[in-house]
């Protein structure tokens, strides 16, 4: 499939004919799995509405199916509530997908695409893994019990297919942005644009991330929170409650969070990369560089989450906080548990 796209040069946007990249084809397929695209059809828009009702009603499962979760029903209900909100928000965004998709129609490096797609499949496999555990926990040959298993498994399928799609989309989109900026930076040494042309190109990249942030900042933050808060819960389940089936969750969520965070940081460090590149190759005078640095402060090329910018320095600070505060606390809890058992 061929499509007209816009590519930023040193001073303008050019319209060229380009083949649709593989990563964006994958996103379309993944969207189909969630059933959301049916919302734009005339006769089948009830299908995503039905999927929404399933996941929304499953939030209250601890009230009408108390024996489904052996423990932590509140945590599972919170996850499903978040999934319900995300599914509704994504359905709303899809109504004007041409505008809200923010596709750049550029291919990403093969290894980046493979890693992001790998996590998509890992999350979907985790849904299957969790479903097997639940069916194994409720083997009673009672119709209502098995109907409940199917119902809850379907609700979790909607949750995982939606969250897996968003994980892949966000990682690919952030990679596309980083790659576009990188290509532009490398072109500066070759083209040596005038300061006015530089600001025009810089503004185009700034507008691109602002457009993305308007529609997707909420989803990016939700994804970061879901991945983050689950990890300590699963670790405690493994070491304190001896639920070794949660080891898979710890591995998948931790590695997924690392890759997710890496893509955010890689984009958010681009501001500094542009300035350092200009200094390194001495492309502009000292007066012009002061203008560029001042302009970059108020025109970020990365994502700002309601005033919080996740980048390398912030991750280092959080890492030090974890080492000095959280890890000793977890160690103390585990030690007390072991001593109490003795």
Account of the protein in words:
- The chain has 342 residues and is mainly alpha-helical.
- The chain has one domain (25-310).
- The protein is 75% helix and 4% strand.
- The chain has a two-stranded antiparallel ribbon with strand order 1-2.
- A hairpin with a 4-residue loop joins strand 1 (2-8) and strand 2.
- It is globular.
- Residues 1-17 have low confidence and may be disordered.
Summarize the structure.
With 342 residues, the protein is mainly α. It has helices at residues 22-34, 46-58, 61-64, 73-94, 97-100, 110-137, 143-191, 195-239, 247-268, 270-281, 286-298, 312-341; strands at 2-8, 13-19. 75% of the residues lie in helices and 4% in strands.
Reconstruct the topology from this structure.
Blueprint lengths: L1 E7 L4 E7 L2 H13 L11 H13 L2 H4 L8 H22 L2 H4 L9 H28 L5 H49 L3 H45 L7 H22 L1 H12 L4 H13 L13 H30 L1
Antiparallel strand pairs: 1-2
Helix pairs in contact: 1-7, 2-4, 2-7, 4-7, 4-8, 6-7, 6-9, 7-8, 7-9, 7-10, 8-9, 10-11
Entry keywords:
mainly alpha, 342 residues, single chain, 12 helices, two-stranded antiparallel sheet
| Structural Rg | 23 Å
How many β-strand runs? Answer: 2
SSE string, helix = H, strand = E?
A: EEHHHHHHHHHHHH
- Mean pLDDT over all positions: 84
Q: What does the oligomeric state look like here? A: single chain
The domain tally reads: 1
Bin the helical content: over 70%
For the record, give the distance between the C-alpha atoms at the N and C termini, rounded to a whole number. 67 Å
The coarse overall form would be globular
How many DSSP helices? Answer: 12
Low-confidence runs of at least 5 consecutive residues? 1-17
